[in-house]
Write a structure and sequence with these properties.
The protein is an alpha/beta fold and about 375 residues long. It contains 10 helices and 17 strands. Bound molecules: manganese (II) ion.
Length: about 375
């Protein structure tokens, strides 16, 4: 049996306030394009089963464009693969906290051969394939009170598959995963999974395609939509696993180029010299920066040097790229008061709190400042702990 395993589609993801000629956010269109390519490739590969391991949508309330597009593509997928089951679970991004919100993925139940498991863990039996897929969506794993879910293969099925959306812990994960986790995921230990008991384990949540065992993969996202975009240097795509040979093949899909330029140091340089170093870095990008997502970290850049930079030129690069992030960072100094007593620098959480409480103006009327401060500080603390 050949299984196409996709995850973390994040349809409806938006960033950078740029629109296509049709008025769609450029990154939303990128993600939709990546999905279209993935669907076309899956159809071409003719698998026996398609698994989608959560975060089909980026939010619990995606735009109408994203919903319509997703519906159309799942129809293309199922019409291109007559009789092939498509089993999907919900991830943390598309699982509402309150059950009365209702899950948008339920819509896909209207498509023939699509099975959606949004809230509770249960096996999906596929008699035609003599297979059983134990589905563990985010809400079931993250349920309050630490509900323990038995992860047991079905002894009556020839092929037992496990599909879950969450962070897998254990020796292989510690060695292979480049960043600790996406926020908001449930944690599952790999010893609880026991990959040797399953024909295949399809994971979702971590956005970089990673094999935690020969038959246990994170398929990774199809575009760069994680909170750690700059870590996602590896190609995006999906996994095709063959249960007969026990082998997996990663199939990349085209994505928008992301360029994280080598970090510069402005130590001891004048504004004009830093300008020149930036220009060299930008000119060195093969094929130019047009339409790309670009970051350049300039370390040890004091405020007066940043002020002196050629901002007109920087604005031109910002206009040319889809996103040009000139990340100028001040020198790390231990400031001391006149008395010589050390002055404690504000922690990042304190800086976030004071910025959001005072300097920042809410960008939308329905934002609650207190809630935002609370979330901002919480995210920073969690990142520091991680
Ligand atoms: Mn995700």
């Amino acid at each position: 049996m050949r299984i196409a395993h996709l995850a973390d589609l994040h349809l409806g993801y938006r960033a950078y306030h740029r629109a296509t000629p049709r008025g769609v956010n450029v990154r939303e269109a990128d993600v939709a394009d990546a999905f279209r390519h993935a669907v076309a490739k899956v159809v071409e590969l003719r698998p026996d089963l398609v698994l989608v391991a959560g975060d089909v949508f980026h939010t619990v309330r995606p735009s109408n464009t994203a919903i319509a597009d997703a519906f159309r593509q799942f129809c293309v997928l199922t019409e291109g693969l007559p009789g092939v089951p498509v089993v999907m679970i919900a991830g943390n991004h598309d699982s509402p906290r309150s059950s009365d919100t209702g899950n948008i993925l339920a819509l896909f139940r209207e498509i023939e051969n699509v099975v959606v498991v949004a809230d509770e863990c249960h096996p999906v039996r596929l008699p035609a394939l003599d297979a059983s897929v134990l589905c563990m969506p985010h809400n079931a794993l993250a349920a309050e009170g630490g509900q323990t879910v038995a992860m047991e293969p079905d002894p009556k099925a020839r092929h037992n598959l496990l599909m879950l959306h969450g962070t897998v812990g254990g020796a292989a994960a510690e060695q292979k995963m480049r960043y600790v986790t996406e926020f908001g995921g449930a944690l599952v230990d790999d010893t609880a999974i026991g990959p040797q008991r399953w024909s295949y384990v399809a994971l979702g949540h971590y956005h970089i395609a990673t094999d935690l065992a020969p038959n246990m993969w994170y398929a990774g996202a199809i575009e760069r939509t994680s909170t750690n975009l700059w870590y996602e240097t590896a190609p995006k795509g999906f996994v095709l696993f063959d249960t007969e040979t026990g082998t997996a093949h990663f199939h990349p899909v085209p994505t928008r180029p992301v360029v994280d330029l080598p970090r510069l140091s402005a130590r001891g340089l004048s504004g004009a010299e830093v300008d020149e170093a930036i220009r060299e870095a930008v000119d060195g990008v093969e094929g130019g920066i047009a339409g790309k997502i670009v970051r350049l970290v300039v370390a040890d850049a004091p405020r007066h040097v940043v002020r002196e930079l050629n901002h007109r030129r920087i604005r031109e690069w910002k206009a040319e790229a889809l996103h040009f992030h000139l990340d100028a960072r001040p020198p790390e100094v231990r400031r001391r008061a006149a008395s010589g007593a050390p002055v404690r620098r504000q922690t990042l959480a304190e800086q976030v709190e004071s910025f959001l409480s005072g300097h920042w103006t809410p960008s939308a009327a329905d934002l609650t400042r207190e809630r935002l401060v609370e979330l901002g500080v919480d995210y920073v603390r969690r990142a520091e702990e991680a």
